[in-house]
Amino acid sequence: MALLEASNITKVFGRLVAVNDVTFTVEPGSIVSVIGPNGAGKTTFFNVLTGIYKPDKGRVIFAGQDITGWRSDQIAALGMRRTFQNIRLFNNMTVLENVLIGMHVHLQASIWSIIFRARNMLREEAKARNKAIELLEFVGIAEKRDELAKNLPYGDQRRLEIARALAGDPKIILLDEPTAGMNPHETTEATQLIRRLRDERGITVILIEHDMRLVMSISERISVLDYGSKIAEGDVQTIRTNPRVIEAYLGKGAAAGHAA
User: Where is the ABC transporter domain (predicted)?
Assistant: First the structure.
């Protein structure tokens, strides 16, 4: 059974068809990339999958449940987490506090337990703190847990976003341009971390990424969007030699030259 199935997804803003009849399937334990030129509809498609937008057509099945029209917090609680193209951290909170916030959908303490500092709440708080530190160790920034998020270097802020997403015990994580703005060394480290998400934690990964070397080195399957429509799908070799993909990125002349 597929972990995620998006069928005939369409999203329209006024006269702009941002996503046009896209069907997309992800198997458990895979690393899948969604690529395409700027404005191709990739982030809008992510927003539909994660409940930020409701599709105008189509449906989304995740972990065997039809989540079409669900709120993003409901989808997150079911096990789908994401990061964003533009980093969205709580800048004036510590690194550790940012990760703890990512656990909120799974915490059980009632408002009265919190007010009166009940024993069960204190146990849950200690357990959550230990888990947050473990996640920060996994992404490599545990020693910075007491620093304000805004004071982290750019690459570490990206790592913190991933740690916060992991705090919700996801089955699948969607990464929107996780290496944007990184230098080559940071990109290499990020690539290794993405592999470890799947290999060490068993999390299925979908990423939007413009770094083609990263995409081609890590992806088991690639879907290509252009002007909101899916124009190609397949393994790395299939996508690398697809004339429509070459045309979308480099123009008709490049595609014709490749075919010749």
Answer: 4-252
* Percent above pLDDT 90 for the chain: 71
CATH 3.40.50.300, applies to 1-79+170-260: yes
Task: Give kind and range of the element (H or E) at residue 164.
Answer: helix 154-166
Give yes or no for a contact between 234 and 221, defined as CB atoms under 8 angstroms apart: yes
Spatial distance between the Cα atoms of 10 and 45, rounded to a whole number of angstroms:
9
14: Cβ contacts below 8 Å, ≥ 6 apart: none
**Residue 179, both tokens:** 């290496």
The answer to whether 158 and 182 have CB atoms below 8 angstroms apart is yes
Boundaries of every domain in the chain = 1-79+170-260, 89-169
> 180, 210 in Cβ contact below 8 A?
yes
Angstrom distance (rounded) from CA 87 to CA 129? 23
Question: Is the distance from CB of 35 to CB of 42 less than 8 angstroms?
Answer: yes
Task: Round to whole Å and give the CA distance between 76 and 103.
Answer: 10
Structure tokens at 125: 């708080």
Query: Which phi-psi region, left, alpha or beta, contains residue 127 (left: φ > 0; alpha: ψ -120 to 50)?
Result: alpha
Q: What is the pLDDT of residues 117-176, one digit of tens each?
A: 556 666 777 888 889 999 999 999 999 999 999 999 999 999 999 999 999 899 999 999
User: Each residue of 83-95: pLDDT tens digit?
Assistant: 988 888 989 999 9
Eight-class DSSP state of 146: T
How far is the C-alpha of 177 from the C-alpha of 171, rounded, in Å? 19
Q: Give the whole-angstrom CA distance, residue 48 versus residue 106.
A: 23
What is residue 104's predicted lDDT score, i.e. its pLDDT? 66
A 10 A CB-CB count for 120 gives 11
